[in-house]
Amino acid sequence: MTAMGDVKRRRIDELAARAGAVPEGEGGVSLTRSAFRRLRRNPVAIIGAIIVITFLIVAAFAPWLAPRDPLAQTLLSEIRPGNIPGSREGFPLGVDNLGRDMLSRLIWGSRQSLMIGVVATVLGVVVGMAFGVLAGAFGGWVDTLVMRFIDIVLSIPSLLMAISISVLLGQNQYALMIAIAVTQVPIFARLLRGSMLAQRDSDYALAARALGVKKTRIVFGHVLPNSLSPVIVQATLSLATAIIEAAALSFLGLGDPDLARPEWGAMLANAQAFLSVRPELAFYPAICIIVVALGFTLLGESLREALDPKFRR
């Protein structure tokens, strides 16, 4: 009987070891590393990353990539009523109605779109996370008060709110950033609050409370870091929304008051008067807005799938 029992125990030990075995050369893989591996195998993520990286490079090195001064009215003397010069040597995309190089203005416009989108998204994330931490960490009447305020903000259409804030604060870039950021605050607040509520009742949080760990340390040292993944993914997606909303507000005349400064939304608005003469003036900035927004959307969706355990294979 003893020998039979030893055999069974050894067999159980072998099966347990085999079940928990890790392939040679591979150790435990963190969530970040595992997500990065899946992103590398995802063609949609690669396409999105290429678009985003190209956009960032163009925006960062605009002064060196632009072939001409975007404000120089180089071919103004050749502009005639009903005739705007198109593509020619030295001007691959032609010029606008004031004789300014279209390619250079598109390149410099990427810098404006990037700055407005990033600043607005960062402001939205910071303020939204502050509300989300208050609601998710304290609960009770604090949660109720914060979420009722968020519900009131959500009840107002985002574009209408952005237009109202831009009008109240005046026509400038800072008002544009604040207006877009305010529309994003409820999204991040609700997302972080829901994620923290799910993490607050998890086993590790209950164990920490049982051991007498202070609530602030549990919230900021454990619950909050484990709740940030969906916020990071949403921030990537919100960059696309911020760029589109910035272009929309500029198109309506609520952006930069300096119309000479290149910005895709303002360029699109300016081209409306010349659609019958040269429709390409509207096509070029519209294509830039669509492609950049698509790149951030593809990368954000792929990142969401990579971090979601349900999509792991």
What is the CA-atom radius of gyration, in angstroms? 26 Å
What is the level-2 CATH architecture name?
A: Orthogonal Bundle
Uncertain ranges: 19-27
Question: What is the helix tally?
Answer: 13
User: At the fourth CATH level, what is the homologous superfamily?
Assistant: MetI-like
Strand residue content: under 5%
Overall mean pLDDT score? 82
DSSP strand count: 0
What is CATH's topology name? MetI-like fold
Largest beta-sheet details:
none
Shape: elongated
Domain unit count: 1
Give the % helix: over 70%
In sequence order, what are the helices and strands, one letter per element?
HHHHHHHHHHHHH
Decide which structural class fits the backbone: mainly alpha
Name of the CATH class: Mainly Alpha
What is the CA–CA distance across the termini? 44 Å
Description:
About 70% of the residues lie in helices and about 0% in strands. With about 325 residues, it is mainly α. It has a single domain (about 30-310), classed as MetI-like (MetI-like fold), CATH 1.10.3720.10.
